[in-house]
Amino acid sequence: MATATALSQRAYGLSAPNPNVGCILVAEGKTVGRGWTQPAGRPHAEAMALAAAGARARGATAYVTLEPCAHASPRGPCCADALIDAGVARVVVALQDPDPRTDGRGIARLREAGVEVDTGVGADAARAAMAPWWSRATRGRPFVTLKLATSLDGCIARADGTSRWITGARARAHAHLERARHEGIVAGRGTLDADAPRLDVRLAGLEARAPRRYLLTRGMAPDGWTALSAPDADPGVDSLLVEGGAGAASAFLAADRVDRLLLYRAPILIGDGKSALGDIGLADLAAAHGRWRLVDSRMLGSDRLDVYERVRKE
Hints:
The protein has 9 helices and 15 strands. By secondary structure, it is an alpha/beta fold.
């Protein structure tokens, strides 16, 4: 299942409106087929894996990160039926599909056909791997990542606004990779007026993956931008990267819309500079504790990246 989850990442940010799913077919201890959701959502991961396996799929075990779909679509076959028709003997599912068109029906159909089904294997990792789609499917809103690049003392610029460059080349390249993995990117009006940011992807081979640009404003957005009236307004994308100004960052945090935090910290001190955040609506220090969980930490050249996820009870 870990391999299937890793494969699902190849479709991250590309499979909308469908989830980015990974699938592995194993027979006699060997991988006979593998697949992941293709761009724009079709073919599905199971269809790709079955096509790769051919006749070797008969009697095999399929490991799939999301319950095989059970509904017919003009865009492609029903994956539960495809697995049954191929003669797969066992299916291991990480997550039950929250889509009401499937939601347990795929598992039930497989079992009714005599296919052994196990569920819940690697569920947390699979859910994290498809976080944008899962957020849209279960909460009706995009998965929001906030990116902050600061000095050790929490500044994003000098007092005069100078901010290029706080972090080094490797950290900036990683930030561009994150842009390529998101459907939308948000900046505030102050950042737009001061810096006129392009917010594109400047990595060789990924230039076409630039996200759609949103401006957090109650007014009109200039050409090439789409106005986003508030952090809780729906931009119509599954993944949103907030990158552009303390005002926008603070607004999304105050609205409790940030699900993931990318904190890039350079080994420099600025002193009397511009703070990364303004008022985020914190009532007392007790309310600040227990809200964020560290999930990754690494060095990018001389800079440190810490990745946090919002702790939610849902």
